[in-house]
Amino acid sequence: MSAIYQRLSTLSFTRPSGTEEERKAANFLANEITSIGFKPEIEEFSYERNIPVTATLEAVLEDGSTKVFPVTGLIDSAPTPPEGSEAEFFYLKSFDEVSLSKIQGKIVLLHDRLSHEEYRRLRKAGIAAYITTSGTVRDTYENSDLETGRFRDNLHDLGAVPAFTIRLIDAVALLRLQPKKLRYTLRLETQSLISQNIVVTVPGTEIPEETLIVGAHYDSVPFSKGAWDNGAGAVQVVSLLEHLRDRPPRRTVTAILFGSEETGLRGSSSYCFQHQATLSSVKAMINVDVGGSILGKEIIFVTATEQTEVWVQSLLKEIGYAAVTTLKVMSSDSAVFSDYGIPSISMGQGAPRGGGYMHTRYDNMDLIVPQVLEAEAGWLATLVDRLTDAVVFPVPRSIPEKLRKDLIDYFGKRRSIMATLPPSEEDKPLPFRF
């Protein structure tokens, strides 16, 4: 059994943010790094969240009968009054003008999580509350879990409302009943959590004043063992450190294993906030989030200039590594660094239809294979080598305007660091003269 596969097998257990299991995972990874020959630093951080302690949903039918459906409340959403609330029910199939004109004062059922713009439209239309879904229509109560979602930080700029998650099978049953209205309660309780980042610095041999950050998160969601998301990325970063031990980089590499990514990129946000004074020396950030599965394609998210994407594409062709690239903000720790103006390159996997299992009990070792883990780790090592050893760093420290706007939208105008920074100014080539 390969070392990287063995590490992931050991790390494959449920390890949610702020729990003893997350700390156990951090200790395991720190010990692995120590055995390689580096001295990891554990940087603790704390944060608060409002977790649902009571969430109920009751359908009221035309004949006055009722039916209760199991739901969870969204973390950090808004509570109802202690006695609960009642509203007419509406299934919002799409965000068309006709549908939006009918939802004032109602509790709406949605297909998926909300973007900032979608939520803005819901608030403008005057919804009372909303319900999202988890799972598939083929689930049973025995083979599925009811996910506890999170009311994203950027939505708070528009004001929170009570929000719930329901199993998709129950959403279908709810629609079949055609209820006249819904009664619902949501009570939240503030919880303080302590998490930790693991930080390792590999000094550059020739250009130590310039830094490349490489990171991955190691926490999981509840009820998931998090092998694919994102134990795979964590062990790939550990493997990179083995590589850098034997092949020291010209530029400094800071490797970070982030805690509490799944609860709102808490680890990367904490790191950037605590290290603001040194971020000016960071040339780029490389992130690994989701990998190791025998199914799916390799995707590289470039939150940087088109020039950077072309450089990545050229490197892929040169070394013969199969992956697709996209200029996009990845919803992972890399987004935090890019919001601070640092270009980022993120690696992930896209699963085929029916082959994905993120944030479910099926994210375990069943589909993880050593060959894919090793190939991904090899690509990561090559990418880091080329960046750290380049005579001139090939990634401009610039965020294009479209991605800049996407970052501000992703984090919310009041929370985005990018919203306070001036637009990037790219160096333009000088005219050629004899």
Main pleated sheet:
14 strands, mixed
Number of DSSP-assigned strands: 14
pLDDT below 50 for ≥5 consecutive residues: which ranges? none
Shape: globular
What integer value in Å does the Rg equal? 23 Å
- Structural class of the helix and strand makeup? alpha/beta
Domain tally: 2
CATH class of the largest domain: Alpha Beta
Query: Level of helix content?
Result: 25-40%
The average pLDDT value, as a whole number, equals 96
Instruction: Summarize the helix and strand pattern as letters.
Output: HHEEEEHEHEEHEEHEHEEHEHEHH
The total count of helices amounts to 11
CATH topology call of the largest domain: Aminopeptidase
Report strand %: 25-35%
CA(first)-CA(last) distance: 61 Å
- What's the CATH superfamily of the largest domain, by name? Zn peptidases
Q: Mind telling me which CATH architecture of the largest domain this is?
A: 3-Layer(aba) Sandwich
